[in-house]
């Protein structure tokens, strides 16, 4: 009996404990949760064990998986690629839809079309991207050969997500989800956030990421990056560098990608490290982008600084000369680069520029400067000044901060107040659905189309509206408390400008 049949035959009783044991008994032997291994090669050093079934594959998650199987998106579950604090990642093959799609492509035309099924994968056909080119380089798929997917399943434990709110709070796209205390909904938001960030990066086409396929509640399906022998592509941390030049190559590549992510995709990774980058076909792929934020997030620059620090720390450990964190930061956020020749969206032009123009950190003073840089409070723009900025300014720290904000960068970073009254952005969160229990409800599937239709105050119920308005009022009241008086702000800006 196939796994799908087993799922179909499953009856759900009131007694959850019973259901739990029933499902686990039925499927734990079918769903391979042990470390993924086909013929050879290991994936991750993390240990997968039976306990993961209880932790991650709870009855609810099983039902979401069933829905994905029923829709032909995924088929077999072949084992665990990684077990982590927040999520487990599993390997699966694409389902029948993808097979059918391959067949019909084979029959009709060589032309690259989004599959019927993946039409709601939301990968708008907005022109070829680098990522698409990547796909074109793949050997043509034989009829019957299935794509491989990585399935990231977020754990439904509350504790893990506790400190994660700060990444969602302050995100314009997720403002409706603030103060979301229902852990299941929080996880759903988290998975959607990762999906949306992946999609955004994938569509921009300047930085390789796994192709996002589908998201359903706490289950995210994406392209599986593999070495060709069934095992996952290595994390940068595990990558066997050929020589020192290759270490330098990936260092420059990483810095260029941080800039592209910021300037083109308008995102800061916010958990960038040698663990969250995979080397696939000689290129760096960013993964694990659930916590990535947009530049207008109040802490985006702090996250960016942290990313740079982590990356530098790793490459220094690898024994190469590194640049100062402050310089890299400036390189990333400056819209224009002095003496830049070539295409600013081109990876090798950027890498070339980095190699030639950034100055290697050598002396103790350079290190001391970075120490100061790490401890600085980062001001996003002069009009966003608050009391504490003013204090720091009077302490004489402000000049350095200002010099970090490339002048023309100011227009690049939207001011928080520009967003205050916007309620119908196309980038709006749609995860407020109360109905996340109904796994058969197709409309629950995340979709931009749907988002466009459902968003808008028209569909809000009265209580929600009241609460939203009340919250907005309170937020404004809070903001007023710390607001610098206009005349002080003016004076401050004037003073700063005259210091230039
Ligand atoms: N698309 C993919 N293709 C191949 N391997 C992947 C893919 N996505 C994730 N992995 C593997 O799974 C691991 C964990 O993925 P990810 O970093 O997204 O999860 P996580 O949220 O960091 O989990 P943790 O709680 O361990 O931090 C990665 O280090 C990588 O080895
Ligand atoms: Mg990770």
Please provide a written account of the structure.
The chain has 20 helices and seven strands. With 500 residues, it is an alpha+beta fold. The strands form two sheets. A five-stranded antiparallel sheet has the order 1-2-3-5-4, sandwiched between helices. Strands 6-7 form a two-stranded antiparallel sheet. Helix 10 crosses helix 12 and helix 10 (244-263) packs across helix 13 (347-357). The chain is globular and about 65 Å long. 35% of the residues are buried. Residues 1-20, 39-52, 108-130 and 406-458 have low confidence and may be disordered. The protein binds adenosine-5'-triphosphate (ATP) and magnesium ion (MG). The site of magnesium ion has 3 residues, from loops.
Outline of the structure:
It comes from Maudiozyma exigua (Yeast). Residues 418-451 have a biased composition (Acidic residues). It is built from 20 helices and 7 strands.
Q: Could you name the key traits of this structure?
A:
20 helices; two-stranded antiparallel ribbon; single chain; binds magnesium ion; binds adenosine-5'-triphosphate; alpha+beta; 7 strands; five-stranded antiparallel β-sheet; 500 residues; disordered N terminus
| C-alpha end-to-end distance | 75 Å
Instruction: Tell me the number of helical segments per DSSP (H or I, 4 or more residues long).
Output: 20
Query: How do the SSEs run, as a string of H and E?
Result: HHHHEEHHEHHHEEHEEHHHHHHHHHH
β-sheet strand percentage: 5-15%
Oligomer: single chain
Q: Provide mean pLDDT, rounded.
A: 71
Largest beta sheet: what is the strand line-up? 1-2-3-5-4
Query: Major sheet, described briefly?
Result: 5 strands, antiparallel
**Are any ligands bound, and if so which?**
adenosine-5'-triphosphate, magnesium ion
Overall structural class, as computed from helix and strand content, comes to alpha+beta
Q: Would you identify the regions where 5 or more consecutive residues have pLDDT less than 50?
A: 1-20, 39-52, 108-130, 406-458
| Total beta-strand segments | 7
């Amino acid at each position: 009996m196939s796994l799908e049949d087993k799922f179909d035959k499953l009856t759900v009783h009131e007694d959850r404990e019973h259901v739990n044991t029933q499902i686990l008994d039925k499927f734990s032997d079918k769903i391979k949760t042990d470390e993924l291994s086909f013929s050879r090669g290991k994936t991750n050093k993390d240990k997968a064990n039976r306990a993961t079934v209880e932790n991650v594959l709870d009855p609810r998650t099983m039902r979401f998986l069933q829905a994905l199987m029923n829709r032909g998106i995924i088929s077999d579950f072949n084992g665990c690629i990684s077990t982590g604090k927040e999520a487990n990642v599993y390997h699966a093959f694409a389902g029948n839809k993808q097979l059918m799609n391959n067949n019909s492509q084979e029959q009709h035309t060589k032309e690259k079309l989004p599959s019927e099924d993946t039409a709601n994968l939301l990968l708008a056909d907005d022109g070829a991207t680098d990522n698409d080119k990547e796909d074109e380089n793949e050997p043509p798929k034989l009829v019957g050969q299935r794509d491989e997917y990585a399935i990231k399943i977020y754990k439904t434990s509350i504790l893990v997500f506790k400190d994660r709110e700060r990444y969602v709070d302050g995100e314009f796209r997720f403002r409706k989800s603030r103060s979301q205390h229902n852990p299941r909904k929080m996880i759903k938001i988290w998975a959607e956030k990762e999906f949306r960030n992946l999609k955004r990066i994938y569509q921009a086409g300047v930085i390789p990421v796994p192709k996002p396929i589908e998201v359903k509640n706490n289950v995210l399906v994406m392209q599986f990056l593999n070495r060709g022998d069934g095992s996952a592509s290595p994390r940068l941390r595990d990558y066997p560098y050929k020589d020192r030049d290759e270490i330098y190559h990936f260092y420059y590549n990483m810095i260029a990608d941080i800039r592209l992510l910021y300037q083109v995709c308008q995102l800061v990774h916010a958990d960038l490290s040698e663990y969250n980058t995979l080397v696939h076909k000689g290129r760096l792929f960013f993964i694990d982008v659930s916590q990535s934020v947009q530049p207008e997030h109040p802490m985006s620059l702090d996250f960016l600084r942290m990313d740079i620090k982590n990356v530098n720390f790793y490459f220094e450990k690898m024994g190469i000369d590194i640049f100062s964190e402050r310089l890299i930061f400036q390189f990333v956020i400056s819209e224009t680069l002095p003496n830049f020749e070539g295409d600013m969206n081109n990876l090798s032009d950027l890498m070339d520029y980095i190699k030639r123009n950034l100055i290697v950190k050598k002396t103790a003073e350079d290190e001391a400067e970075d120490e100061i840089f790490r401890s600085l409070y980062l001001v996003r723009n002069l009009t966003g000044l608050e009391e504490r900025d003013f204090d720091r300014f009077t302490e004489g720290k402000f000049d350095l901060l200002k010099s970090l904000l490339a002048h023309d960068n100011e227009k690049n970073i939207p001011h928080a107040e520009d967003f205050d009254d916007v309620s119908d952005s196309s980038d709006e969160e749609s995860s407020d659905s109360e109905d996340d229990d109904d796994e058969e409800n197709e409309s629950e599937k995340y979709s931009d189309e749907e988002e466009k239709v459902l968003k808008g105050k028209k569909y809000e119920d009265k209580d929600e509206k009241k609460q939203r308005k009340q919250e907005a009022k309170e937020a404004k009241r809070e903001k007023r408390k710390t607001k610098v008086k206009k005349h002080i702000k003016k004076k401050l800006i004037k003073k700063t400008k005259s210091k230039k």
